[in-house]
Design brief:
By secondary structure, the chain is mostly beta strands. The chain has three helices and 25 strands. The chain folds into two domains: 2-156, Elongation Factor Tu (Ef-tu), domain 3; 161-172 and 202-319, Jelly Rolls (Sandwich), CATH 2.60.120.860. It has helices at residues 75-85, 100-105, 112-117, and strands spanning 2-7, 12-16, 26-32, 39-44, 53-59, 62-70, 91-99, 120-135, 142-149, 154-156, 161-164, 167-170, 199-202, 206-211, 220-225, 229-230, 233-236, 242-244, 248-249, 254-258, 265-269, 275-277, 294-301, 309-315, 318-319. The strands form six sheets. Strands 1, 2, 3, 6, 7, 8, 9, 10 and 25 form a nine-stranded antiparallel β-sheet that branches. The longest helix has 11 residues, at 75-85. The chain starts with a strand and ends with a strand.
């Protein structure tokens, strides 16, 4: 596994775990806090009830402690480089990369096919330096540092998952027969309205969005209008939760909604690129919902113009550990 810390200036420092392979003088000998979570339990007690009544729980912030050693001929230089890059009071990002074929390679040769088919993940977590690198020896070869992660979940850093919610139905099959005379003159010269239909848009199609992560996660949905659309909404069919808007969209308009924690917004951008806040257009029963782990049947519906919306859902799965 490879650990990479990136500060808010874009500077990175790479550390290799025992099962990782990287060209770096920094090697990880201990990693604590990267797996599992500590929960804060909320319960009420009442006399003369035995025990307590469970109300709920929340995940506490995560603290990750990394211990390691500096190898090579330039320990003093690499020590200074680590201190300069890992500055306290600045936000950063810790990224973990693991190729499972590397684990297999320790027990024998691994073929190119095995490498291509191996399981690989890249996960990241926002963090702040809680304890800057501490060097146990004057020679500076062994270090310990602690990262404070206010948001405790790891997110998929390999790229956002995109799910198209629009569906087209094929209008032809093989053997294919095209009506005679249809191609005798260009369509732009014809005004009889006759043409060959390759497919049709399906309205009110339920799309199953699968969240492979361990925890619910927020998402961003883009609703593109290709015609006149009235009162667009996206509905979670399983829970009944609904994000609806009392507005009208014309061809070229884009409605963008984010349900990501601490990054919620709703904007409407017209064909000229002018963007405005769409919060005032939310319906009374509007609910910012998230994608549960597993299946999420979603439906895009409109008061009018179902066939003139094309929607895409984007999200990053969240994980409990590495």
């Amino acid at each position: 596994m490879i650990l990479t810390y990136t500060n808010n200036a874009g500077q990175s420092l790479t550390m290799a775990a025992p099962d990782g392979m990287a060209d770096t003088p920094y090697y990880v000998t201990g990693l604590e806090g990267a797996h599992g979570l500590e929960m804060d339990m909320n319960a009420v007690e009442q006399y003369p009830m035995d025990g307590s009544a469970f109300i709920g729980s929340r995940a506490k912030p995560r603290e990750i402690t990394i211990s390691g050693i500096i190898w090579g001929k330039h320990k003093a230089r690499d020590r200074v480089a680590m201190l300069e890059l890992m500055r306290p009071k600045e936000t950063g990002m810790l990224t973990a990369t693991r190729d499972l074929w590397q684990l297999a390679a320790r027990s024998g040769p691994v073929s190119a096919e095995s490498r291509r088919d191996s399981y690989r993940f890249v996960r990241r977590i926002p963090c702040v330096i809680e304890r800057a690198p501490y060097f146990a020896r004057a020679s500076g070869d062994r270090f310990t540092l602690t990262l404070y992660c206010a948001a405790p979940y790891w997110e998929d850093a390999s790229g956002a998952t995109d799910v198209e919610m629009s569906q087209w139905l094929a209008a032809f099959e093989f053997p294919l027969e095209i009506p005679g005379g249809w191609l005798e003159e260009p369509l732009w010269k014809r005004n009889d309205g006759i043409g060959f239909e390759f497919g049709t848009r399906a309205a009110n199609v339920i799309t199953n969005v699968v969240n492979p992560g361990d925890m619910p996660c927020g998402f961003v949905v883009d609703m593109f209008a290709t015609g006149h659309v009235v009162n667009p909404a996206i509905v979670n069919v399983a829970t009944g939760q609904r994000m609806g808007f009392s507005l009208t969209m014309e061809s070229g308009d884009v409605l963008e909604i984010s349900t990501i924690f601490a990054q919620k917004y709703a904007t409407l951008t017209n064909a000229d690129g002018e963007r405005r806040n769409a919060f005032k257009d939310m319906t009374p029963n509007f609910t910012f919902f998230t994608l549960a782990s597993g299946n999420n049947p979603l439906l895009v519906e409109c008061g009018d113009g179902d066939l003139y919306t094309e929607s895409t859902v984007r999200f990053r799965p969240m994980y409990l550990g590495l």
